[in-house]
Amino acid sequence: MIPAKFDYIKASSLGEALTLLQEHGDEAKILSGGHSLIPSMKLRLATPSVLIDIGGISEMNTITEEGDEIVIGANCTHHQIATSDLVREHVNILSQAALCIGDIQVRNRGTLGGSLAHADPASDYPATVLACEATIVAEGKDGKRTIGANDFFQALFLTALQDDEIITAIRFPKVSQGTYQKFFQSASRFAVVGVAAIKKGDGVQIGVTGVSGVPFRATAVENAYDGTSSAAKHAMDGVDDIISDHFADEEYRSHLARVYVKRALEAL
Amino acid sequence: MGTFIGKPIKRREDARFLKGAGRYTDDIKLPKMTQSAFVRSPYAHAKIVRIDTTNARNMAGVVAIYTAEDGCGEYGVPCGWQVNFKNGETMREPKHPLLAKDKIRHLGEAVAIVIAETLEQARDAAEMVEVDYEPLPAVTDPQKAMDSGAPLVHDEWPDNAAFDWCIGNDRAEVEAALASAHHVTEMEYRNQRLAPNAIEPRSYIADYDVNAGKWTLYTSTQNPHLIRLLLCAFVLGIPEHKVRVLSYDVGGGFGSKIYHYTEEALLTWVSKEIGRPVKWTSDRSEAFLTDAHGRDHVVKSKMGFDKDGKIVAHLTDEYCALGAYLSTFAPAVPTYLHGTLFQGVYTTPLIHLNVTAPFTHTVAVDAYRGAGRPEATYLLERIISKAAKEMNMDPAEIRFKNFIPPFDGVNEPGYQTQVALQYDSGNYEAVLKRGLEMLGYEEFRKEQEEARRNGKLLGVGISTYIEGCGIAPSAVVGSLGARAGLYEVGAVRVQPTGKVSVFTGTHSHGQGHETVFAQFVADKLGIDMADVEIEHGDTDQVAFGMGTYGSRSLAVGGSAIIKSVEKVLEKGAKIAAHKLEAAEEDLEYAEGKWTVKGTDKSVSFGDVSLTAYVPHDYPEGLEPGLDFSSFYDPTNFTYPFGTHIAVVEVDSDTGKVHLKRFLACDDVGNVMNPMIVDGQIQGGVVQGVGQALLEEVVYDEVGQMLSGSYMEYAMPRADDVPMIETDRTVTPCPHNPLGVKGAGEAGAIGSTPAVVNAVVDALSHLGVTDIQMPLTPQRVWKAMHA
Amino acid sequence: MNISITINGKLVTHDIEPRISLSHFLREHLDLTGTHIGCDTSGCGACTVTLDGQAVKSCTVLAVQADGSEVTTIEGMAQGDQMHPIQEAFREHHGLQCGFCTPGMVMTAADILKNNPNPTEEEIRHGLEGNFCRCTGYHNIVKSIQHAAEQMKA
Fold it and tell me: What is the CATH number of domain C85-153?
């Protein structure tokens, strides 16, 4: 399997990457870990004529503590996130989610920013990003902006990122208690259902991935939460656009969502 | 047990594999070699309206592009086995064209091949070949393929049947016995379609030497000689002695690399056209679409019992998919490799199986690890466990009640089944007893009750299988429709220094022949293993052999080698007698030397070898040399058997099955290398677990494949399975010199029903009696809530 | 594009199309055919090598992305005739049959043991989730890695 021809440019700084992206417009794709992009290019499902490799931009490869937030560079790999002491201590749920992704080799290459920008509806991070109310930091020709988790995921494989923007970092509020519970699709090991739940005061915040074309906050559960797991029955209230395939049809997937929300609430 | 036989000798193949120095076909690069890429149909059934290669031909690096209109259109790959209709009508047998002409009959069928200097260029140009199709309705389900009005795969025949077939007792007699049976258990299900998925994709290099007028075909095949024969005599019409087929290291086969594929023939043809070597290596997407699949039987079955739980009759009707074209062994799989095992390990007095085998708009279905026997075993072992439940009997008890009593095939005769075969030797009670012991069956049942009280869904499943392998007597398979003999060849060439080269017509693609064959040859000759080298996979070196499949290598191939070893020793004794000035009958052979009985006068194997090639002082009238080739054609198949037991826990919320333990007590006859036998069983078991829980090729209504990559086709990974606990009993095969039966497929045959039985057992108190494979969490959960 | 990669300790400089994956580069341009391609889309793990010390699926890394890096392939594991303890352990415990997935298994095992010198059976199985083996049922692969862990501690 060989991708169609393309030009490859390795950006040495964010500024350079942004300039290149502006220059090449629709023709270009950003290459980070490449673990979604390269296979789809090999299958010739994606045929960008320019790849802008941001993998070498070291300013996007750090994990830092900034007040009440942990700031994770978009280039951080799943392995970095799973094993970072800062993440483990302050946003443990994120390291749990990172450890559920793919396998050792995939975690060594795949990045947080890449995964979020790709917005695969069965990917793991969105549930945690939503539950934690993380903010996505993006930069484009008009400068830097932050996008709230709730506004970020817009449709199947579609986010609030503009064509000229690159995710540079994700800011996670510190979380005292959180859990990520996942039901694995047996072939791809992506999430049939992934539920992230965190404690916030007396309440909970719950993000759900895998179930719908767009990951969502289980607000009905959050509203009904009474300290027990009984609110889990509301996990699918108001959810449409439910994914159906030969591993899980709508009925079963909806059932799993309720089960995994319950498990998440019990694990909190 | 000898010095080497029966010992867990470490494999001599391993060093090269572990260092990355294996020689798989795709590793080979020849001077001036070109690369190729196929243009394949995105439809399962379509008319080809137009193919335009103009733009593609102008692409950089393109050497040639061929469609069916470009000279190769007349060639087609034949089938190797003929099964005629019950009414005597000849099997319908379309030639499988090397490239599709006018019509597409399955997704991924090739319409053009692009040859270029590099793989990148070949792919780029293939993208530029324009093909217009007119899509047509397709049928992929074997039962629906027989509905009136179903889309026809081949327009020349009035329906999709390739043949129909039956075996066993008179149907009316079986039906009558069922009608008067105390209890009848019924099952309807689909033994789902599987993709073999050897991790090495198929790979071929064809190299035509214009000066010598000879071809060399490097191919990832399990059976080089058969490929050469089919290629030369039945496809391209080229002289067999002008073709050398080489199959070095092959990365797994599981059946999928037995067959002669169209790509092999096409590349061979192309190489002469362009006068250069040409390589093609399948990618994984192509493998899903074009490697022969396995299983795909739609089954309807009834088994009748008397009031004591003894089986009185068994009647089954099946629709078995063949795919769009008949692959090499395809007709044999749902018939002679399947129906002949319907006796199982039980004394069932009346059996009838009826098979309808239609063409479908899918890739071919052929032998996949076990080939017909897993399908038979699945049916028998599921239905008997289902019957036990219905009759309120223990699944072990019902089996003990119905077992064929032990027989060794020497003092007691073989067991004549109702379905043509005569079993060689067996002790079925022993393997079940041992299996139950390994688990601690009684204890487990108590634990299960306790678990149920605590709301846990724990289950145990038993399967006691028999299989027929060591395939097998040429006259028998010939009478059953095989177009080839199924003997094996083995040559022993003793070199002047006493070093030994062994040539076998079998092929090793993971089984460890280089080690195991050297073990018994060294033992029989009383020499060091290091002095024995095993050669295979080269049709120029080895006489016409039949390759490796059907767990036949040791039972048939090993026996051929033994015959040659015996000839070496026989002739060696003549030379030794001459050297020792003694009579042959006064000599004994041990530890690599001939000794005059009762004396210390001896001559070594090495001395005799040298004398054979330097025959200065030599027996009168005896030919020089010590080099023998033998063909071994066995008198019967071999019949390994065993008990597999699975313990599962089902997640009551999700239906997910956790395989907690897997125990296997197998009897594969005598064991040459226990380490390798255990490895074969462990691997086979996990493949069978894959069928039970994970694997399925899914086509939609228009024949698109929904499971064409590792993102959708689930196979067992390391964390899906536990350690496999193995033990064995030994009931030697009475009719081959090593007493071996074969171990390659047993694991995959016994394990699948054990796992499904365990899951159904775990859920039986919820009223679950059957679940369609694979037992995905969704299917299990839905069964629990049906 | 011109790239320089240190492969098994040797600096290699090559002019290469950006679309060539590291696996393809190793096999076709450097004749390091021990790295195998089973699926080419990061599903099977046969192509696993280490890139700057970490196991990666070389089919899903472009060769140009590896520019300036250090790569170890299966050919770089043994020191002359002396096999790496992981390789030795696979031989000792029959951790391979057809040998095709083996290089990827060995390279992945190296990553598992680097990060966790005392893995449990469960941790080993979890660590191998990105590598298919169709022959062994994983039983002896897990045993091999357990044995290698003991040997490497000793």
Answer: 1.10.150.120
